[in-house]
Write a structure and sequence with these properties.
The chain is of the alpha/beta class. Helix content is about 50%, strand content about 15%. The protein has 2 domains: about 120 residues; about 220 residues, Alpha-Beta Complex (Spore Coat Polysaccharide Biosynthesis Protein SpsA, Chain A), CATH 3.90.550.10. The strands form 3 sheets. The chain has a 7-stranded mixed β-sheet with strand order 3-2-1-4-8-6-9, with helices on both faces. It has a 3-stranded mixed β-sheet with strand order 5-10-7.
């Protein structure tokens, strides 16, 4: 009887996960490149929050100043979130464009909201009708802003753009690039399937009117993360605006991989911390089922050893089919977006992904978070 119950549970979790992956794959099939090829009439505000980014800020500034976009149609606001290095001085000394400003978040402005307060302060001091947010450790193609904004029509309220890791020769960086590409494609596929769930704040754009319509970050200012996903989900759920994903290669934002496993762990832990706070409780339940699927993969090992060898078969089938479907998703992603993505580390990434998701998910839900030299709760 116990064998039957466990087999049923593992099968149910597996089927749910395969359905989830299938939704991503078919969502990718539904995505289409924009054929608008016209810029929005609205004035644009690019908001770049930063804290202690002296290593990256000038590279970021250079790629921002090189944008092939009419200077009179956009502004850039670098928002200083209490940096204690020379990031501000570097910006002020090196910026050459009049449409680039550097502003400082006041000490008493939303003191617990961290990055969200920097973005909100930037929005409150911006002139644009469309807001673009990105990070200070990112670099962009010359046509990044143009290609991202070409996705806007009058029905579009939010655009999620692709982000890609810049790998080096180390194996750890190649694994990160592969795994991160999978996350970006997951977000793209879910948008394509009509269920916007995840995106990355390093490359998003939205109408200020849609931001105001859903009260911005008001209901999640207590959380250290989620300035991207919570907003996208609310705009999709609570307004008549559409959410789109930009399939244009030129709209890809690039950023460096995490230098150490500690940095990688804290980044993923921070991202995992927001899942339990999604407003859509059915979505939270689905994510919990996916998390238990990963736990089930590990649990089936001792169950097979101590209870029944039958569970070696269930484990093997789960791992192989998971690998096949996820490989199909990655191959599709290479065809439509990440043309130069190598999948040489895909098998190793698949193996390492299981324990990292279990551990990061657990610690992200219950532990504190370390980010930008700050110890945060959630």
């Amino acid at each position: 009887m116990l064998n039957f119950i466990l087999a049923f549970i593992f099968l149910f979790l597996f089927i749910h996960y395969i359905i989830f992956l299938s939704r991503i794959y078919y969502g990718l099939l539904k995505l289409k490149k924009t054929n608008l090829q016209i810029l929005p009439d609205e004035f644009i505000s690019v908001i770049i929050p930063f804290r202690n980014e002296s290593e990256n800020i000038l590279t970021n500034l250079k790629s921002i100043e090189n944008q092939d976009y009419p200077k009179n149609k956009f502004e850039v606001l670098y928002v200083n979130d209490f940096s204690d290095d020379d990031s501000v001085e570097l910006l002020l000394r090196n910026k050459s464009s009049e449409n680039i400003k550097v502003i400082n978040v006041p000490k008493d402005f939303s003191t617990n909201a961290h990055k969200k307060r920097a973005i909100r302060y930037g929005i409150e001091n911006s002139n644009g009708e469309i807001v673009v947010t990105t990070d200070a450790d990112c670099i962009y193609e010359k046509e990044w802003l143009r290609s991202l904004l070409e996705n806007f029509d009058h029905q579009t309220g939010f655009v999620s753009g692709p982000v890609e890791f810049i790998e080096n020769k180390k194996l750890f960086s190649k694994i990160q690039k592969t795994e991160f590409a999978g996350l970006v494609l997951t977000g793209a596929g879910l948008i394509g399937s009509g269920q916007p769930t995840i995106c990355n704040a390093a490359n998003i754009a939205y109408r200020k009117s849609s931001f105001d319509e859903v009260n911005g970050f008001k209901d999640n200012l207590n959380l250290s993360s989620g300035d991207d996903e919570f907003l996208m989900q609310k705009i999709s759920r609570d307004t008549n605006f559409k959410v789109r994903f930009s399939l244009e290669e030129k709209s890809i934002v690039k950023t460096n991989v995490n230098k150490t496993f500690r940095d990688f762990y804290h980044q993923r832990k921070r991202w995992a911390s927001k899942g339990l706070f999604y407003a859509d409780r059915s979505l939270v339940f689905k994510l919990i089922l996916i998390y238990f699927f990963y736990i089930g993969l590990v649990v089936q090992i001792p169950v097979a050893i101590f209870l029944s060898t039958f569970f070696w078969l269930t484990l093997l089938n789960s791992v192989i089919l998971k690998f096949i479907v996820e490989l199909l998703i990655m191959n599709k992603g290479r065809k439509i977006l990440f043309k130069k993505l190598s999948l040489r580390t895909f098998l190793l990434t698949e193996i390492l992904q299981i324990p990292y998701i279990i551990y990061a998910g657990l610690m992200g839900s219950f532990g504190n978070i370390f980010w930008k030299d700050r110890h945060l709760t959630r």
